[in-house]
Amino acid sequence: MMQSALADPSVLLLTLRDGALLIGYMMLMTVFPDGEILNLAVMPEYRRQGLAEQLFDACLAHCQEAGIEMLFLEVRASNTPAVSLYEKQGFVTVGRRKNYYRYPKEDALVMRLLRE
Ligand SMILES: CC(C)(COP(=O)(O)OP(=O)(O)OC[C@H]1O[C@@H](n2cnc3c(N)ncnc32)[C@H](O)[C@@H]1OP(=O)(O)O)[C@@H](O)C(=O)NCCC(=O)NCCS
Fold this sequence. Notes:
Helix content: 10-25%
Bound molecules: coenzyme A
Distance between the termini: 24 Å
Low-confidence stretches: none
Number of strands: 7
Strand order of the largest sheet: 1-2-3-4-5-7-6
Mean pLDDT: 93
CATH topology: Aminopeptidase
Order of helices and strands: EEEEHEHEE
CATH superfamily: Gcn5-related N-acetyltransferase (GNAT)
């Protein structure tokens, strides 16, 4: 696992590689003392092997160090794999944004994690 600083110091990019191949990544933006997960994806061939959970482990370790207390994210309401992952990580749904996404139009669930 590698962490790269982007030009914006409030954004952390976590990446997972298999050799030279980028197989997963997560982006976290800090608006202290909160964090927002901007994006998370694992390449289809590498899914269901616990890699997203590895990205979360690294993200939560960073949050602990940085003193980030609450994490937020938005996810398509129909995205069962992602919603299941977030619930497994302890996120709870705290809101719903009507027609937030386009192509196709869909509501977003707003989820929050209170870090222990
Ligand atoms: C969501 C995503 C990142 C999960 O990555 P992953 O590496 O396959 O996830 P993991 O193997 O770490 O799975 C961890 C948990 O997530 C949940 N999960 C993952 N894929 C799932 C699926 N297809 N169906 C149901 N639950 C799923 C399960 O709770 C799983 O725990 P379990 O293995 O004990 O059942 C991946 O499916 C993906 O890249 N999807 C496309 C991009 C996307 O939707 N990103 C989120 C945008 S908000």
